[in-house]
Amino acid sequence: MALMGIQLVVSLLAASIMQRMAPHCSFARWLLCNGSLFRFKHPSEGELCALAGKQMPKQNRRDRRQNGENKPLTVPKDIDLHLEKAPVGVIDALVLRFFLEYQWLVDFAVYATGVFLFTECYYSVMDASKEVNIGAIWCVLTVLFSLKTLHTLMSHYFRSEEGGERSVCLAFGFLSLLVAMLVLVVREDYLEFGLESGFSSLFDNFEIFARQQGYADWSVPVTKLTVKLGLAAVCAYIGALLAFPGLRLAQTHLDAVQMNSDRPLIQILLHMSFLSPVIVVILWVKPIARDFLANAPMGKTSVTIVPSAAFDSMRLWIIVGLCVLRLALTRYHLQAYLNLAQKWVEQMKKEAGRIAAIDIQRKVTRVFCYLTVVTLQYLVPILLILFSTLSLKALGEFSWAMGAEETPGVTPALVMPTAAPVVPSTLEDDEEGVEDMEEDIQATVAHLSATFTALRSILTPLFFRGFFAFLTWWVATCQVISSLFGIYFHQYLMQN
Fold it and tell me: Where are the membrane-spanning stretches (predicted)?
């Protein structure tokens, strides 16, 4: 196995470029600060007093507090207030909450996409079946970093003083646990993940590997039921992570559709983007997707629309295309969120009474302060689905070509390689120190090669196909549940 191949060189080059170019050229920073997004500035106390028809007090807020006057400046709610627009600038974005986490994750995803595309081109022209797929490693890391970012956001909700957000996360976690336990008992004839064959391959290969290492009487101590219970717990955790992103997606979708009421084409694309997780869920329902397209009823006969051999490749292309569509509509959702400040002001004008000027300023400012949080809640589920699909393609050894003959997911063979023996270094003669060092390096490389070969013998493409297919489907399912509940909440419960 060639460890120090061209893939590793390109990977290290991409990591170095990302580290050095982040302060100067960042796709994440450009996404927010390219001049297409507009925020709303909060009004000053002088502007509010002018709109209310009274003079600004001579003493400012700090002077009044020092003199013992704790009464805040209040204005009528029905004042003719119009917020001033301003494009989101780099200086404005740098002070936003979780901006550094957002910038690092999005930039890492961009470079991971570049490395993956290079490895795909490299594998298409070279026979690199014995090399480690570096692009797949970048994709898996992106999935892990995305989950970590969602965990950071959820921990922020758990530290909230009110506690309502914590209850929402726990409720969606328990609901996801129940749904996952029901899904895991469904037969492969209906949901074609390949988990059963993948786990069987994992257990059998691991047991053979253990026996070859000298554990003759040892067998796998975990059963499939235990593994499925652990997988259901992981699904509950992912469901809790995706609770608020789904609720936020529902709100921004409704506002974006209303914002583009005079643009029917954009509205159609927004609806397609919102329903894209439903399409991803249906793609793994075998009677609706694979069987229907392979034998579509046409009167008394059946017509083959998509052959079963080409369905896996078509499914990969559809998921990637839907993710690209959702990424292309990011600006509309973010602008719809920023418009909540003006929307709240319009709602305030319809109410009677007075309101403190500081409350108006805080409400308008708070919308912009959480821009990067909303951006992460919109982008991270897309990244999870996209890079889980790319990992499925790379590690599951699928093909992008329609109808191409795919490598069966049972390789490598059951004969497991043992670890290469380490060549002992002799330091008896100082003059042979350099040669001994070279031998040690070669022995280390051989040992790492044997280790990676052993891992590939245990974690076969058959296992990766089942695992990442289920992960992709589950992320889409969680987003369908949370976003549809969000639509019901904002359309009916909030209005009542």
Answer: 135-155, 167-186, 225-244, 265-285, 367-390, 467-489
* Cβ contact 463:267 at 8 Å: no
Contacts of 195 (CB under 8 A, 6+ apart): 184, 188, 466, 467, 470
Contact call for residues 352 and 78 (beta carbons, < 8 A) = yes
Distance, CA of 215 to CA of 483 (rounded, Å): 50
Peptide bond into 412 cis (omega under 30): yes
Residues 432, 433, 436, 438, CA torsion sign: negative
Find out whether 315 and 282 touch, Cβ atoms under 8 Å: no
Q: Radius of gyration over alpha carbons of the chain, in Å?
A: 28
CB atoms within 10 A of CB 325: 15
Q: pTM for the whole thing?
A: 0.86
Calpha distance 422→447 (Å, rounded): 7
Q: How far apart are CA 386 and CA 392, in angstroms?
A: 10
SS3 239: helix
In angstroms, the CA 79 to CA 242 distance is 39
Q: What is the pLDDT of residues 120-158, one digit of tens each?
A: 998 888 876 677 788 999 999 999 999 999 999 998 888
Chain center to CA of 222: 30
> What does the pLDDT look like over 381-439, one tens digit per residue?
999 999 999 999 999 888 888 765 555 444 444 444 444 444 444 444 444 555 666 66
Q: Any idea where the domains of the chain sit in the sequence?
A: 6-43+81-411+460-493
Closest CA to 202 of 470, 478, 471, 465: 465
